[in-house]
Model the fold of this input.
Amino acid sequence: MFWKRTVTRSQEYAESIINTVREPLIILDQDLRVVTVSRSFYEVFKVKPEETVGQLIYDLGNKQWDIPKLRELLETILPQKASFDNYEVEHDFATIGRRIMLLNARQIQRVLGKERIILLAIEDITERKLAELASKQAEEDIIKLNAELEQRISQRTAQLEAANIELEAFTYSVAHDLRAPLRHVSGYVELLAKRFQSELSEKGVHYLDSIADSVHQMGKLIDNLLQFSRTGRAQMRRMELEMNGIVQETVESVIKDNPDRVIEWIVRQLPSVYGDDATVRLVWMNLLSNAVKFTRTREKAVIEIGAKVETEEVIFFVRDNGVGFEMKYAQKLFGVFQRLHSTEEFEGTGIGLANVHRIVMRHGGRTWAEAELNKGATFYFSIPHN
Amino acid sequence: MVELRTILLAEDNPKDVELTLEALAEHNLANRVIVVRDGVETLEYLRCEGKHKLRKPGLPVVLLLDIKMPRMDGIEVLRTLRSDRAFQTLPVVMLTSSREEQDLIKSYGLGVNAYVVKPVVFKDFIEAVKLLGMFWAILNELPPAAV
Done:
């Protein structure tokens, strides 16, 4: 009596565990006939208890469990190893279609009696597998897309570079070809003025002077354009640049060009950068001679040169107490032939800052300026670390 | 009295020719200038061929050579001259419209004697031509082979 109750109890206990587990679970006897299955098994595989219990597993649901891989597992591997874990089986079920299952099995010696029973847990991982497959596909798609994008970018870059080279060549040849007729104009005007001076009225002489003056101006513009074009095409040879040394030499050269000026130079400690010596010198030359030029109306010019090290770049600046400019024109400053002052006020063609911009751009840096009319200006440029 | 010998001017543009001659005339050097209009004619003159078949033999003191010319350009002329034993040492000065880096490199690579960019402003042009004329026609000693 007692033992029967115990047996019944432990059986109830076992069945309640089986029915609690979410995954379908089958218990087979040693002949591979179904002893019991979990509730979820009926739900998942759409079979009824009366056609399940007592059946050979292979015969379940019109033999849809007659799966070669399962046979191998149950008949060959299990008798040897007493258990197997995470066997993946893919099978086409008549009732529920193609499924991928993860099988786990244990062979257990029953407490009483000699027969063995087999616990077989079946996890349907079809959805998970599909999701994995989809994410793998998506990953492959992204990699492919990235590769395509990169290829497109490098194609575009090559096209841009080619267009740029062509544009430079065009600029150069235009400037070059303009020089010849201009030289002729200058030549004939000069000859006219010299050979026929006595036949010319005062007005006639004035006209010729004006032509000569304009020719001179145009010659300068063309030469500057040629120089600008050269800056764009010049080969850059990058090396460690000792900026204080370069600035010192540039300051001396600017002073030599402006011997009559009273200028207070304040040169701060400047960090070294990695760049092209010749063109970086041109940047300093342009900025410093600009500072000197636009402080001309000051009794004493004060020009300060300094730098600030940031995480990505070094920012250099040239500050002056000159005539400055209105900030609303600031974005025009670095364009080719852009000027904010008349030629009578301050001479120049408007190529200097365009050159500065181009050189700094080629170093991967930035240029900008801050100013206030009549209160001075500060010009900035940055050079990235390495 | 130093005897002035010929200056050969290779230039296709008639205005450039006229202005160069005007500049040389300012220093009494114009009457010694022979003008040829392109690279092919330059070689014909130097080799006494074609329409220069009957000219008095002898080499100029200097060849002022424009780069951009029809038929055969200045660089090609220079290359031909330097590979010809008869003209290997002939003084050649490039007289050109602008300072094109590639032309400079090629010219010096081929052994040009000087490279001069024609100034736009005529006063500067006259000065440059004067210096050139004086230097090559009067001051410079020619290589023995060319005498």
In short: The mean pLDDT of chain A is 87. The interface with chain B takes residues 172, 175-177, 179-180, 182-184, 186-191, 215-216, 219, 222-223, 226, 230, 233 of chain A (CB under 8 Å).
